[in-house]
Amino acid sequence: MAMTMTGEVQLAASRETVWAKLNDVEVLKACIPGCEELNMTGENEMQAVATQKIGPVKARFKGKVQLTDLDPPNGYKISGEGDGGIAGFAKGGATVALTDKDGGTLLTYNVEAQIGGKLAQLGQRLINGAAKKVADDFFQRFAAAVAAG
Amino acid sequence: MSATGIGAAVRRKEDFRFITGKGQYVDDVVRPGETRAVFVRSPHARAKIKSIDVSAARKMPGVIDVLTGADLANDKIGGLICGWMIHSKDGTPMKMAPHPALAATTVNHVGDAVAVVIAATVAQGKDAAEKVKVDYEVLAAVVDPAKAKSGPQIHEIAAKNTIYEWSLGDSKATDTAFANAKHVTKLDIVNNRLAPNAMEPRAALAEYDSGTDQLTLWNTTQNPHVARLVISAFVGIAPEHKLRVIAPDVGGGFGSKIFIYPEEVVCLWASRKVRRPVKWTSDRSEAFVTDAHGRDHVTHAELALDANGKILALRAHTIANLGAYMSTFSSSVPTYLYATLLSGQYDIPQIYCEVDAVYTNTVPVDAYRGAGRPEATFVVERLVEVAARELGLDPAELRKRNFVKSFPHQTPVIMAYDAGDYGASLKKAMELADVKGFSKRKREAARHGKLRGLGYSTYIEACGIAPSQAVGSLGAGVGLWESAEVRVNPTGSVEVLTGTHAHGQGHETTFAQLVSERLGIPFDSVSIVHGDTDKVQFGMGTYGSRSGAVGMSAIVKALDKVEAKAKKVAGFMMEAAEGDIEFKDGKFTVKGTDKSVGWGDVALNAYIAHKFTGAELEPGLKETSFYDPTNFTFPAGCHIAEVEIDIETGKTEIVNWTAVDDFGTVINPMIVEGQVHGGIAQGVGQAMLEGVVYDKEGQLVTGSMMDYTMPRAHDLPSFKVETTETRAPSNPLGIKGCGEAGAIAAPAAVINAITDAIGTEQIAMPATANAVWAALSRATPRAAA
């Protein structure tokens, strides 16, 4: 099942600062809702474990996260594949772009994902809302991390 | 007619236990030491299984064993089969791909099982199932049946994903008739895919007795003997005499519980491995991705007519989606249960139909209430209705001009209709539906901004399935007769053992009515026994509206034998010749005298055997019969739907529904009416609400009741249900069958009514408010003119 989502968030920091935070594994780990592990396994490659609950389905996703199309300090593409076991799978990515705006940085993101298995079967109505909430939670925490310097 | 005999609206015996929660379903059966099976299922529509790691799952609390497809293959357990051979036009046999109960190398639909956890509880099993690590290599999936032939090949055996390319009828003669036609009506039709959703989900409980090497399976099946036969002879779990299959109370089937599924095979196999009973009960989510779906046809159909509206010929090309594997009877549904009914109620000189059955990476598709006949009726009744509109003829008039009026009538597509009066049911339905007053109601509706439409469906079906020799010649792997055993107890009460199975039909009531009337004994003195291979010798189960026409006919034959023997006993009791004994209303009388003995006395004397010697007569009173019908039966009728549509929203309300059906002899009019109600509700569900949707990756989008809409009471009007009656000449009771009629008739009636209202034929099922609104916005409504 395909899912798309776009959004933007205004951050009170320079593009360079935001870029640095976007590439900081510890920051990402703290900001990703339900993230239990996020470890660098190679250049621009991480191993992640995160638990997500969507409607009646709770799944612990394990998978690889890759950063590609790196264009410091303007943006990158973050993509991954998560195997949630019998709950199903999620794979996809987000392009993230940074632009100067109002003395800070405007971060825009564009998500495309595929969901399968029980998640797609049961979460169909809920998936967009759940994904939006994950994104909102992430950027709320990310904005706080950026603000904290 | 007695108060409990044939034709009486007797209340259902079985309802007391169902309504008071005393029904015994498979999940209610609990065996000592019972374990639970939890299946690990594929989240992908198509993938290679690279590896399965069960080591972590095995260490989880409560886990007894974790088994995979490799284990199943190692134990040489056979795959599931399709029991009806269809040959392609070129004479090649259908391409039946292997269907292991647990996939070992590839998965072919979301929900395909790859492993099973056997655990002490369901919760422990689910926790452990999460620890089973399956490494998949995801492959491109085939989803759209219309594009299946050009998609990646799913099974090695089936090039172009084609199972068969079959045809019926005379192609050349049909083309000639079309060439000479004055008018040709053409339609493209999608018969939407449905998920069956019986109220009780499927379940299996298997127990192995190592002392006797005997397996027992409690299973939600409509045909326990067929399940045992297939599991024994093809899957090879155990020899037939070492396997007992029990189908206790079963809460709805609609076809979906005919088939032999992977889960019961796995439970049987696992119970022998772990030496404990193994139970599996599906949940609703699992049901959506494992119960065989129904319908799913893509059809182009054409009707040729002369200048007077006389039908000359019909031709159709259908692509039938059979899903990822061939289910038990899947091959027969879009062929001999479909194309053979394309003559409808009409005298059509030439018919030609081609059916291409294809594999896709979706749940297998098989028989669902009506099975092929709803698809045929939809094709015929849409064509006829549209032809009438195109020719400017009244749709009822066009039908009348073409009805079969003399019987027997041989159609060009195998079936020989033996009795019916199609004009009578149409006439009665038109009166009940007040068709005369429709134009006034339509004008009235228009004043309120509503569009009104009226749609007919004069359907026919072939039931009483089926004459064994005939279906054998068409490829069936089994005979479709039925058996009955009538056991008279010494006290005169009667047990009837039947090879049919009830899962909502009310056999305990209707079969008892037959015995009560025939033997003149109280209705409550009769018990019906079914659903246990250790009790009933053999039987073919219940589907295809066969239990009355075939199952009750077998009971009649056994009752004939019981009566003959009882007369002998009565003869000895009254010292009269057997030929002088008359039997009426439960009393045996010596002809021309006032000497008589009652049923109970005769029953007792049959067992105490004091009035005759062993040389003269065998003691006891128990008879068996196997009844094989000589023809199908042909229930037919007319349903008229009247709808009102809100122009602004497309919301469609069914405001009137009239059903006049000819089911032949009616045993219990209340039960028959209930069957008609349920059938219409299912047909309306297909027409307006239900539809299985897969996305292009093969993920099931309508995988729960949040997204798959079942009909509810408020979607339906109060039905007007009446019958006409012509007896079925092929069976002793004259029964035709009523179980599927509503589901067969309803979709065409609804869509004919909606298209009548909105003035365009371009609408697909389910005709949701959104679809009707979209069609309206594309069309120029006739109603406005």
Number of strands of chain A: 7
- Briefly note the structural class of the backbone of chain A: alpha+beta
Shape of chain A: globular
Based on helices, strands and strand pairing, what is the structural class of chain B? alpha+beta
Mean pLDDT of chain B: 96
Distance between the termini of chain A: 38 Å
Largest sheet of chain B: 7 strands, mixed
Remind me, CATH topology of chain A? Alpha-D-Glucose-1,6-Bisphosphate, Chain A, domain 4
Q: Give the helices and strands of chain A as they follow along the chain.
A: EHHEEEEEEH
In spatial order, strands of the major sheet of chain A run 1-7-6-5-4-3-2
Please state the overall shape of chain B, judged from the principal axes of the Cα atoms.
globular
Mean pLDDT across residues of chain A: 90
Q: How many β strands of chain B by DSSP?
A: 28
Q: Show unreliable segments of chain A.
A: none
